[in-house]
Amino acid sequence: MLQESEAPIPASVRASRRGRLLLRECSIPEGSLIFTAAFLISAALGVVRQVLFNAQFGAGMEASAYYAAFRLPDTLTSLIAGGALSNALIPVLVSAARSGGRAAEERVASLTLTTLAAAVALAALAAAALAPAFVDRVLAPGFDRPTAALTVTLTRIMLAQSVLVVASSVALAVLNSRSQFLL
């Protein structure tokens, strides 16, 4: 039973509290547990994805084209926006937040995102333009014409994801620098 000073909690406040629970800062053991759980879930989903992919495409030309096409965008993304980007950016963001507050941290994140997204977009455009030669000479020199053409198309499609991976890496670094490990 509510007393005079107590009022029911509105639904919007309850939802806000749930949101804060997910965005709250975590201790190091909690963060480690969250990362471990996320890694295990990701690994399990990767196995499921691979089983479904193999069931759908088997070992045919489409699968070969996909795997060959994936190598160039994956290498580009790993070089520029792999785990090293987030790991290197976190201490910079923490330092900026300590010295200049949240505004300084956001400026560093914005500058990093803008610079890297532009660089990756240019690299992806260059790679897309050079994809036919790269596929014929490096990725899959033994493919027949239709499989090579499919590989070039898939490579170009997959290169577009590189900018999104950079953005997610910067966002991950910002959240981790604030000790927030859940969305």
- Poorly predicted regions are none
The fraction of residues in strands falls at under 5%
Per DSSP, the total helix count is 6
Could you estimate the helical fraction of the residues in percent?
A: over 70%
Shape: flat
The count of DSSP E runs of length 2 or more, i.e. the number of strands, is 0
Distance between the termini: 35 Å
Count of separate structural domains: 1
What structural class do helix, strand and pairing data support?
mainly alpha
User: Would you tell me the overall average pLDDT?
Assistant: 81
CA radius of gyration is: 22 Å
Oligomeric nature of the chains: single chain
Helix and strand run: HHHHHH
The major beta sheet can be summarized as: none
Explain the overall architecture.
The protein is mainly α and 183 residues long. The protein has one domain. Helices cover 84% and strands 0% of the residues. The protein has six helices and no strands. It has helices spanning 11-23, 28-57, 61-81, 83-139, 145-159, 161-177. Helix 4 (83-139) packs antiparallel against helix 5 and helix 4 packs antiparallel against helix 6. The longest helix has 57 residues, at 83-139. It is flat, with a radius of gyration of 22 Å. The model has no long low-confidence stretch (mean pLDDT 81).
Keywords:
84% helix, mainly alpha, 183 residues, flat
Concise summary:
It contains six helices and no strands. The chain is mainly alpha-helical and 183 residues long.
